[in-house]
Amino acid sequence: MNALDTLKERGFVHQTTDERALYQMLERSVTCYTGFDPTGPSLTVGHLVPIMMLAHLQRHGHRPIILCGGGTAMVGDPSGKTESRPILSPAQIQANLEAQRRQLMSFLDFTEDRAFVVNNADWLSGLNYIEFLRDFGRLFSVNQMLTAEIYRTRLDNNDHLSFLEFNYQLLQAYDFLHLYREYGCTLQAAGSDQWANCLAGADLIRRLEGAETQVLCAPLLLTADGRKMGKTERGSVMLSAELTPPYDFYQYWINVDDRDVEPWLKLFTFLDLAEISDLCAAGGAALNQAKRRLAYEVTARVHGAAAADEAKAAAEALFGGAAGESGNVPSTPLPTAKLAGGYTIVDALVDSGLCKSRGDARRKVDQGGAYLNDERIDSIERQLAEADVQDGGILLRLGKKKYHRLVVE
After folding, report:
1. pLDDT band at residue 233 under the 50/70/90 scheme
2. What is d(CA 367, CA 191) in angstroms, rounded to the nearest whole number?
3. Whole-angstrom Cα distance, residue 194 to residue 27?
4. Which of 129, 163, 202, 351 has a CA between 20 and 30 Å from the CA of residue 10?
5. Better-predicted residue by pLDDT, 409 or 257
6. 82 has a pLDDT exceeding 50
7. For residue 95, what is the domain's CATH number?
8. Are 341 and 310 within one domain?
9. Domain tally for the chain?
């Protein structure tokens, strides 16, 4: 089966430069790449879409390159941003790069050169600016660049767009050219927000090398209720266990909208499509089994089977009414002295991270959505006391599925 057929069936294909030519290209083994700028200490679940694209391509016999943008991270990608990204130090970029590299290795087989990682700082840092402008800048039309959504949106909204950011498209295009020349890379896979940057690279290769390359872009995912995929009230869901603990990561997938379960099983797991169809066929309450499978499969892929088993056991203990038996529920230390000093449910909800602000916590209590040791709290004045401590802690719950344990010290 052609890799493009698999990617289309699973929902990865949003735009291609030439679908027929891409299909023919993928009839033989090709080298492809996706870039990730190390602007943060962890990749997010939103990055899983292009990562899984590469994983499927590799399973069909193609060779992926992971480009870690140590060079382009110093410029900052303006795509999808209303303001300039903060400028990071080389030390911050290197630390982020190493962390992201480890995360990416959970998805691809890097043995025997089946996939490999490169850092564009290795070739971008040594460029002579005057020579670069002379040799490559002349090939880019500012008029055409300004029609790209990444720049047009910023300008239409009168948002600041620095000349530094304006260079980003040139550098990403040069990356594609470099990978074509060094490794014979003929396909770039990315999210649809990178469409214009990817096209610029393919055009640069055509102009300078007379070769045809292809671009494949996946859709930018929104949840069924219109929110950006991977966003919660507490921020982005990270692949790092330190930033998003495995239990919280597991719970993110358990809590997905019913309408997202089947498409996300196709995108984020390697389960057979027939099995996915069977899991989702019944709908209704039976769909919870499909959600548990989705949560387990993605958590095991990102954090390992042991962490997925612990997260699953913790969730089952909580939902089975045995919350105190599980040590895997997210927790926060709570000094005993606080219990004697007027520590309210509002304070506890904010300190635990279940609510993002005191106003948010008050609204949740007023709406009847806050629980202490599985008892609903009706007053924002409710204070926590030593009598609330059970098995060394106090269990907070928000709604039906968000738990946090305060461990009394």
Report:
1. low
2. 39
3. 25
4. 202
5. 257
6. no
7. 3.40.50.620
8. no
9. 3
Burial annotation 235-269 (CB, 10 A radius, 16+ → b, else e) = ebbbbbbebbbbbbbbbbbbebeeebbbbbbbbbb
Residue located via tokens 């899991």: 279
Please tell me the predicted confidence (pLDDT) of residue 398: 85
* Residue 145, token pair as written in the block: 């660049």
Residue 360: give the domain boundaries. 331-408
- Two tokens, residue 61: 């016999």
**Amino acid (one-letter) located at 125:** S
Tell me if the pTM is above 0.70.
Answer: yes
How would DSSP label each residue in 333-358? EE-GGGGGTT-BHHHHHHHHTSSSSH
Tokens standing for 251?
């719970």
Cα-based distances in Å from 238 to 62, 202, 341: 28, 31, 35
Burial 46-58, CB ≥16 within 10 A → b, else e: bbbbbbbbbbbbb
Rounded-to-integer distance, Cα 97 and Cα 103, Å: 10
Q: Regarding beta strands 375-376 and 370-372, do their DSSP bridges make them parallel or antiparallel, or are they unpaired?
A: antiparallel
Distance (Å, whole) CA 88 – CA 120: 16
Of 40, 34, 37, 67, nearest to 52 by C-alpha is 34
